[in-house]
Amino acid sequence: MNETVRANAPPVVEMRGIEKSFPGVRALQSVRFDLRAGEVHALMGENGAGKSTLMKILTGVYQPDGGEILVDGRSAALRTPQAAQALGISIIHQELFLMNHLSAAQNIFIGREPRKGLGIFVDEAKMKQDAAAIFRRMKVEIDPAAEVGNMTVARQQLVEIAKALSYNARVLVMDEPTSALNETEVEHLFAVIADLKANGVGIVYITHKMDEVKRIADRVTVMRDGQYIDTLPAASTPMSTVIQLMVGRELADQHRATGQGTAEEVLRVTGLNRGKALREVSFSLNKGEILGFAGLMGAGRTEVARAIFGADPIDSGEIQVHGQVRRIASPADAVENGIAYLSEDRKHFGLVTGMSVRDNVTMASWGRFMQAGFMQEAALGKVAEEYVRKLRVKTPHIHQETRLLSGGNQQKVVISKWLLRDCDILIFDEPTRGIDVGAKAEIYRLLEDLAAQGKAIIVISSELPEVLRLSHRIAVMCEGRITGELDGRTASQEEIMTLATQRANAA
Amino acid sequence: ETYFPIIAKGFSHQFWQAVKAGAEEAAARNGVTITFEGPNTEAEIDKQTDILNAAIAKAPQGLGFAALDSQAQIPALQKAADAGIPIVAFDSGVDSDLPLTTCSTDNMAAAAAAADNLAKAIGEEGKIAAVIHDQTSATGIGRRDGFLNRIKEAYPNIEVVDVQYANDALKAADNVKAMLQANPDIKAIFASNEGSAIGLAVAMKETGAQIVGVGFDSGKTQKDAIMDGTLLGAITQNPVGIGQCVVDSLVKATAGEELPKNIDTGFYWYDKTNMADAQIAAVLYD
Amino acid sequence: MTDTTLDSGKGAKSGFFTTAALQKAVAFVVLIALLAFFSLFAPNFATGSNMVGIMQATAVNGVLGVAVTYVIIAGGIDLSIGTMMTLTAVVAGIILTNLGMPLPLGIIGAIAAGAFMGAISGWTIAELKIPPFIATLGMMQIARGLALVFSEAKPIYFNDTPSYQLLSPVSSISAIFPGIEIPNGVMIMFIVAIISSIVLTRTIVGRMIFALGSNEEAARLSGIKVNRWKILTYAICGGISGIAGLIVSSRLNSAQPALGLGYELDAIAAVVIGGTSLSGGRGTVMGTIIGAFIMSVLTNGLRVMGVQEEWKIVVTGVIIIVAVFIDIFLRKKA
Amino acid sequence: MTDTTLDSGKGAKSGFFTTAALQKAVAFVVLIALLAFFSLFAPNFATGSNMVGIMQATAVNGVLGVAVTYVIIAGGIDLSIGTMMTLTAVVAGIILTNLGMPLPLGIIGAIAAGAFMGAISGWTIAELKIPPFIATLGMMQIARGLALVFSEAKPIYFNDTPSYQLLSPVSSISAIFPGIEIPNGVMIMFIVAIISSIVLTRTIVGRMIFALGSNEEAARLSGIKVNRWKILTYAICGGISGIAGLIVSSRLNSAQPALGLGYELDAIAAVVIGGTSLSGGRGTVMGTIIGAFIMSVLTNGLRVMGVQEEWKIVVTGVIIIVAVFIDIFLRKKA
Ligand SMILES: Nc1ncnc2c1ncn2[C@@H]1O[C@H](COP(=O)(O)OP(=O)(O)OP(=O)(O)O)[C@@H](O)[C@H]1O
Ligand SMILES: Nc1ncnc2c1ncn2[C@@H]1O[C@H](COP(=O)(O)OP(=O)(O)OP(=O)(O)O)[C@@H](O)[C@H]1O
Ligand SMILES: [Mg+2]
Ligand SMILES: [Mg+2]
Description:
The complex is a heterotetramer, with one copy of chain A, one copy of chain B and two copies of chain C. Chain A is of the alpha/beta class. Chain A contains 19 helices and 24 strands. Chain B has helices at residues 14-30, 45-57, 74-82, 107-121, 138-154, 169-182, 194-207, 220-227, 239-254, 278-283, and strands at 3-7, 33-37, 63-65, 87-91, 101-104, 126-132, 158-165, 186-191, 212-216, 233-237, 262-264, 267-271. Chain B starts with a strand and ends with a helix. By secondary structure, chain C is mainly α. In chain C, α3 crosses α12 (263-273), α4 runs parallel beside α6 and α13 packs antiparallel against α14 (309-333). Chains in contact: A-C, A-D, B-C, B-D, C-D.
C-alpha cells in the first residue's frame, strides 16, 4: 500500500507528551502518537507497556496528567467518553464492558435507542434490524435478541465490536479485538476493517499477534515501559525489528514441538457427555506430555476442561486419574486429585481482582501456609516474590491489587497460582490470551520445562501456531466431539482445520 | 432551676402524647422544666435503660419513669437513688421501693371494666374475641389478662374464641377481619389500645359486621366511632392526669413532702351516653 | 447462584419474555398452592368477602413492593419506603385537614413529597456515592422523624374531606359492575402495577434502569448519564411510596405518624419472592404483586386457621425461604 | 465508587494496612469530632459516669456489628442477628432458670444455639442458593417466633443465677484497677472485637472470608470449598449474636422475648459507618466498633442536650449519611 500518499495526509488525531500515573505506577511518560484518516496504525508493546492506558486517554475514559491531544489540528478536551464520541472517536475495550442481562441489540444501542411514541418508548423492532445489519456486515451469526450473559467470551467480543462499529466513528480504537476470536471471525473482521479504511476511517489496532500487524497495519508504533519507542512503516519493517524494539532483547525462535510424553498414563477420560456442548469425549494424557486441544470457538474445549475440573456437572462419563476411577464433583475434588484448570476468562474465573498479587498467587495453596490456623505471612510473601520474579510479573509490589495489573500480567499471576499449587495435571485454557510475544516465549518454555519435569499438560488454544508450537499430541474438537488426534510433531495447520470443521452430519 | 426528665414507654403514640401534655401543663404551672422521652417500641427495654442513664447523667432534681419491665431496670434506678434523685414511677410500677410514689391506673382493673360492659352488651353469653396491641409489654399483658380473667371468672357463658396481636391500626384492621372470617358467629370484640380500636372500627365498617366493639384509650377516630355507634364504648385511663401527677409529685418530693405509695389516677368507661359529661370529657383527648 | 444469574438476564430483556414469565409462573404456582391449601384446611377461608379482605390487606404492601422494585432492578435498595409512606400520608393530612385545601392538591402534594425525598436519597447515592443501603437507612430515620414533627406525633384525621375515602375503602368499580366489590385501594395497586410494568419493559426509563442494574460501569462508558437516571429511579420509588401513603391513610381515615416502620422489609420480601434479583438487572412488577399476595394470603390463611401468633411468625419465615427456594429450584431445572 | 473500591484491596489484604487503617482513622475522626462537640455544647456530657453509660449503650450494638461484619466481608448480609440475639437469650434463660443448670452451660448453650441457627442460614444460602437477604429475613422471623414460643412470650428472669450479672453490669476490672468502672459487657465487646480482628486478618478463616467476598467463583475454581466456608461464616455470626444475647439479658437480668427487632439495622449501620463495604471483600472489625460508638455517642449526646425525640431521629438519620460521606470523601482524597 502507498504510504507516501498517506504520509502527507494530515493526522486526524495527534497526542503529544502524554503523562499518566496510577498509584505506584508511572503508566505513561511523555508519549506521543498520531493517526491519519484511512490508515490502520498498529500500537504494540509488552504487557503493561501502556497501550490500553494511552487509548483510554484518547477516548476520554482516563484524564491525562500532562500533555495535549489535537483532533483535526485543534486541541481538544476529552473529559468523558461522550466527549470523545462526539468527536467521532470510539473504542473496543480490551476488557468487555457489556450488560449481561440485556440482549446483543440492546447492548449495541444502549443510550442511543431508537424511540417511538413521543420518544418515551423503545423501538425494539428497529433496534434488532439495525443490529442484525451490523452483524451481517461482520458476517457473524448472532441473534440480536440473544442475551449477552449467556454468550461465550468470543461472542461477547463480537458484540463489543459491533457496538463500536455502530457509532460510525472516524477514529476507531481496537484494543486486542481478536484475542478471543478464531481464524474465520478474524478474517471477517479484517474485511470490515479494510472497508472502514476505504471510507477514510482511521483505526488504532492494538494486538500481540505479529501476523495480524503484517497483514493490515500501515504503520506500527512501539511502546515499552510506558515510553514511546518508535513509529515505523509496517510493510517495510521486518517483524523481528519490531519485536526487538518491544522487548529490547533477543527472543527464542519459533520452532516446533519435538519432545514426547512418557508411556505412563496419568489421566483417562471416557465417554464424557454434557448436553449439546460435549458428546462422547474420550482421550488420555501421559506423564510428561503436552496435549493440545484445537478447534473453533464453541467447539467445546473449555467445556471439556470445566467438566474434568468438576466446575460443571456432567451427564455421563468416567474420569481415571493414575489408573483409578475418580469422582470429581467439584473443583476442590479435582485439585485434590492433582488437576488444575487455568480459565480462559481471567477477570471472572481466574483472579480475585480485588485481592493482592500475593493472595492470588497463593490462594490455591493457602492450606500449606497455615500454622494452627494462622497464615504464615512471611512465607506467603516470599513465594509470591519468587513467582513475580520467575514470571517477570510487572507490578509495583506484591500487595498491588491484581485488578490494576495489565491483562498479560494478570494472566501471569493466574499461572503462578497453579504452578505454586504444583498439581501434576495442568489444564491451560488459552494460556497466552492477551500476552505479549516476550512473555509468550517464556510461557512456552515454562510449559515445556513443566512437561520435562513430568507434569501432564493440556493446552487449549485458538491460535494454531501456538498449538503446533507446543503440542506433542493434538486433539481436535468440533461441536463437542473429538474429531481426531494428530501427532504434534508432524501435524499441519491444514489437517487441523479439516478436523475442526468436520461436522457430525458432514462426516 | 428545677429540671425533671420524664421517661415514658414510648412517645410516638397518642397515649404518651397525652401524658406528655399533662406533664407539660403541670411543669408550666409549677415553673419547672421537663423533657419527655421514650424508646421506639415497648420492647426496647435496654434502650430505655440507656435513656435512663443519659437522664441521670444530667443530674436532674427528679426523675419520672415508666418502667417497661418491673424488675429489669431496678439496678439503673438504684443509681439514680444513690445519686439522691427522687424517682416517681408512672403508668406501671416497679417491684421495688425506690420510687417515692407511682402514678398509675391498674390496667387489669380497667380491662376488667371493659369486660363487664362488653358482657352486659351481649347478654352475658356468646363467642367473643380480642385484638391486643402488644403480646409482651406490661400494658399489653395487663389489659389482655385483665379482660380474659374477668370474662373467665364472671361470665361462664361467654367463650373467647380468638386473641390476636397487632401493633398498628392497619394490621389490626386486617386481623379483625380475619377473626370475623374464621368465626362468623362472634358477637363482640375487645381492642386493647387506640391503634387496635381504630383497626377494629375500620374492620367493622368495611365488613359491616353487626358486632359489639369495645375499645381502650381515647383519640378522635375512636370517639367518632363511638358517637356513630360503630363501637359501643371504651375505657379511658387518665393519661393527662398521669402526666400531671408525675410532675406534681416530683415537685412535692423536691419540696420534701411525704407522698402516698400509690396514686391511682383512675380510669373511666365512656360511651355515647356520658362522653359529654365534664368529668369524662376532661380525660378524653383527640 | 451461577445458574440463576445465567438465566436471569432474560428477565431483563423484557417483563414478558421466557424467564421473567417463568419467574412469575413459579410465584404464581406457589400462590395457587397456598390458596388451595387454605381453602381445604381453613374453614371460611374461600369466601368472596375474605378474598376482598386479602386484596385489601395486600394493597399497601403491593404498592410499596412495586415502588422498591424499580430501585432493586436498578441495582439499589430503598429501606425508607415504609416511613416515607407515613411521611407522605402526614403531608396529605396537613394539606387537606390543617390547610383545608381540595383533594387533588393533597394527592399531588403527597406524591410530590415522596418523589422529592426519594430524589434526595437518589442524589446522596449517585452524587455522594453513599451506598444505597446506608443512604436509605438514614432517609428512613429522617422521614420517620419528619412525620412525627409535622404531625406533632398525633394522628391527622380526614373527617373534613369525606371524598378522601375514595382512595381506598370505597369500591367505585362495584358501581359499574355490581357484585365486584373490589375497593379502590386495590384497583389503584393494580393500575400502578400495570403502568410500572409498561414503564420498565417498554420505555427508555425502564431500559436505563435495567442497564444500571446490569452493569453500571458499562452504562457509563456507553455515554449514559448514570447519575440522573439513578436519581430519577429513587424519585419514582418515593413517589409511588406516596401513593401507598394515600391508600393507607384513606383506609384508616387518618395519617398515623407512628405506623410504617418495618413495612420496608415486607415489601422487599414480596419483591424477592416475586423473582426479582437483589443483585439488580432482573425482575418484574407482576412478580412483585404476586409476591405481595403470597404474603397476605399466608398471614390471612394462618389467622383464619387460628394458628398461634408465635407459630404464625415462624411459619411466615419458613414460607418466605421456601417460596424463593422453589422459584430458584424450578428456574434451575428450566 | 471506583476510588473507594480502588483502595479496597489493601483493606482486604489485612486489617492493619494503609487503607483499612485510614478507614478506621476516618471513622475515628468523626467520633472524636462528635465527642468534642457534645463536650462543648451538652453540659454533663463529659462525665465519667456518662462515658460508662455510653459504653454500656454500645456493647450490644457493637457485638452484633462485629458478628455481621464477618458476613458482610464475605459478601453476604444477615438480618437475623437482632432476633437471633433474643432467641439465644431465651435459650440461656431456659437452661439457667427453667432447667436450673450452671452458668457455663447457659453460656455455651446460648452461643451454640446462635451458631446452629446461623449455620442453618448459611446452609440455605450456600446449598439452596437462597439470596442472603431473603434467607436471613426468613430466619429473622423464625428466630423471633421461636423466642416467643420457648419463652411463652414472657420475660425469663435470672434471679436464681446471681452470677449471671457477671456477663454485663458487673465491672470485674474495677476490682483490679479501682476507678476504671468499665462493665464486663463492654470488656466482652472489646475482647470479641480483638479476637475477631485477628481471625479476619491473620487466620485462614479470615483469608477465606475475604476471598469469598471478593470473587466467589474464582475462589471455587481455585479448589476452595466455598460452601463450607460460607456456612462457617454464618455460624460464627450467629455464635457472636449469641454473645450479644448474653450481654443484653445479663444487663436486663432477664431474657426479653420481644426485644431485638430492628437491632440488625443499627448493627449494619455501625458496620458501614466503620468503613466496611456492603459489596464484600473489604472491611475491618475495629471500624465497626468505632461505628457503633459513633451511633451511641450521637444518641446519648442529643439526649443529654435535651433535643426533642422526633428531631433526635431526624438528626441521627442525617449523621449516619454524613459520617459515611466523610469516610468515602476522605478516602477518595487519600
Ligand atoms: N486503573 C489503573 N490503576 C493502576 N494502575 C494501572 C491502571 N490501569 C493500568 N495500570 C498500570 O499501567 C500500566 C499500563 O497498563 P496497560 O493496561 O496500559 O498496559 P497494556 O499495554 O495495555 O498491557 P496489555 O498488553 O497486557 O493489555 C501497567 O503497569 C498497569 O499495571
Ligand atoms: N457461559 C455459557 N453459556 C451458554 N453456553 C455456553 C457457555 N459457555 C460455553 N457455551 C457453549 O458451550 C459450547 C462450548 O463452548 P466453549 O467455550 O467450551 O467452546 P471452546 O471450544 O472453549 O471455544 P472458546 O473457548 O474459544 O470460546 C458452545 O456451544 C458454547 O456456545
Ligand atoms: Mg491492554
Ligand atoms: Mg474456551
